[in-house]
Amino acid sequence: MELDTLKDAFDRVVKRQKLSSFRSQEIVDQVGHEIEQALAKIKAINDPLSPVHLKSILSELKLKLNTVGPLNLLEGLQKERNINLSKYPKLLEKSFSPDISKAYRNVDFDFHLVNQIVANHFYQQGLFDLGDCLIDEAGEPEAIAIRSHFLEMYQVLEALKVKNLGPALNWITLNREKLNQNGSMLELKLYRLQFVEIVKKGTKADALSYARTHLAPFASLHMNEFQKLVVCIIWVGKLDSCPHAELMAPTHWEEFTQEIIKQFCSLVGQSYWSPLSVAIAAGIEGLPTLLKLANVMAAKRQEWQEMKQLPVPVELGKELQFHSIFVCPVSRDQGSEENPPMLMPCQHVLCNQSIMKLSKNTSRTFKCPYCPTEASAAQCRQLHF
To answer: What residue segments make up the domains of the chain, in order of their start?
Structure first.
């Protein structure tokens, strides 16, 4: 809520600044127009040395400028702008405490784990030099194990920037079995991107040959997608009129890139969002509440340090809400090591026993209880809380 208030205040300052600038420019333009008119009149008189004519024109100009009152108007606008500008810093000072250490509590950190988390964050962001430096200085050589995976990922991403799908295809081929277990369609998406590039070049024969070789194997499971792609061959040379022109959108490359990153992280047991970035984001959102609570409990410092649970809720966005306990929405049983939660390809989660009952303990597909998607037990992946 405080951030919304600050944003509204900032927007008001910006709006006033723009209005003041616009009005100031109008006043300057009006003064300039009056002066130009006076100069035009001076140039138009027959006797430019006549003091009577000059005095009359200048007197008229002075009267008009006095009527406009540019100095008073500009001073008024400047005053209004200064009032708004002076209020905003006060609001910032009120909303943000300069000393966030008040919310600090004595916590026993596992520095070995913290070093690994920070190093992994640097590698996940492609900052390999920083990660190497941290590992070297902190003496954490085992943390470098994840480096090669992310280095490979960024080599694939760099190739994708120039629409080179070779490295991505090699990686997908090597990890096909694991990707299939995750329910990923990366391979089909890759062939689709390559097929679209061939179609854009206007070679029907090459497009047809590529479709037969690389897309046909997916036809039985993705017939609708396959048919749309094949229809595009007919429209080679006039793709703007193709009924499936959305397949040509450059956003498919961006989506494929994000999917590559997600699958890379998944296969090496890492979250798409690094734990460090999640912790910082949650800390930023929760800090105002923690600072207020720390101020209220300033006289009870010992109790604040020993507190096991916060006495007030800390509102965080849905993307920052995590649960340590899972209850199956079908069986209502609490997840356990014997009956763990399982993630389905549609992203819904059921416990393992519910999935086995739905699949009749076989490899046959079953319909998700919450959406039309079908899945098999082999496609479901265990979640760890």
So the answer is: 2-96, 114-267, 323-385
